[in-house]
Amino acid sequence: KAGVTQTPRYLIKTRGQQVTLSCSPISGHRSVSWYQQTPGQGLQFLFEYFSETQRNKGNFPGRFSGRQFSNSRSEMNVSTLELGDSALYLCASSLGTGGDYGYTFGSGTRLTVV
Amino acid sequence: AQKVTQAQTEISVVEKEDVTLDCVYETRDTTYYLFWYKQPPSGELVFLIRRNSFDEQNEISGRYSWNFQKSTSSFNFTITASQVVDSAVYFCALSERGIQGAQKLVFGQGTRLTINP
Predict the structure, then answer these.
(1) Which of chain A's residues have a Cβ under 8 Å away from the Cβ of B32?
(2) CA of B9 to nearest chain A CA: how many angstroms apart?
(3) What is the DSSP annotation of B20-75?
(4) Residue A80 burial (C-beta neighbours within 10 Å; 0-12, 13-18, 19+)
(5) Which residues of A touch B34 (CB under 8 A)?
(6) Distance CA A33, CA A66 (A)
(7) pLDDT tens column, B32-83
């Protein structure tokens, strides 16, 4: 059974650019959540999608957005990149409501903004 | 708001020693879930355990054990006879219920565990 796949693994972007990260959940999982991990702030929740609808959103500026497709794959987009957006972005998939079923995480995308 | 505190930022022990990682949480929910994850240098968060708020039984899985005490809002993790492969950052997390019944994870700051040979 394939795990959660995140692409790309590494990314270097210039300040002001935009970036799109992709996450393919475990087959059959309908919930995808995104988390940002930085040395200073730790792991913080970005948003969660379930059946193509955003159900929950963290405290991040509007430059951070996401979407989910009918096959449950999800993308997150960050526009007008800032140096502080450099982080490891982790995606988690869940069968339904995460607490009830648990979360499986991908290996992450490490974004560096220069 | 819900909160998870892992007071130990770094722990270093010699192989075969037992080590306990502490986790204290705050929540107003009566129904919640607690998790432990391991993060090796590769970055992936590896699931270790999930426990719901109604199940206070301690759990043992091989060299790993967990002690859940609602009275003290703690969910501690013990590794017995530690091994070098246990070296990683360990995160305790609490599921928080959001709107529309959606849930998200609130993480502690993590404990970096180093097992020295």
Answers:
(1) 99
(2) 12
(3) EE--EEE-S-SS-EEEEEEE-TT-PPEEEEEEETT----EEETTEEEEEEGGGTEE
(4) exposed
(5) none
(6) 10
(7) 999 999 999 889 999 999 998 988 888 899 999 999 999 999 999 999 999 9
Beta-bridge mates of residue A44:
A36
Q: Contacts of residue B35 in chain A, CB cutoff 8 Å?
A: 102-103
Number of other residues whose CB lies within 10 A of the CB of residue B84? 10
Radius of gyration (Cα) for chain B, nearest Å? 14
Give the integer Cα–Cα distance in Å for B3 and A73.
Answer: 30
Residue of A39, A33, A34 lying closest to A96 (CA atoms): A33
Q: Which of B37, B44, B47 sits opposite A108 (nearest CB)?
A: B44
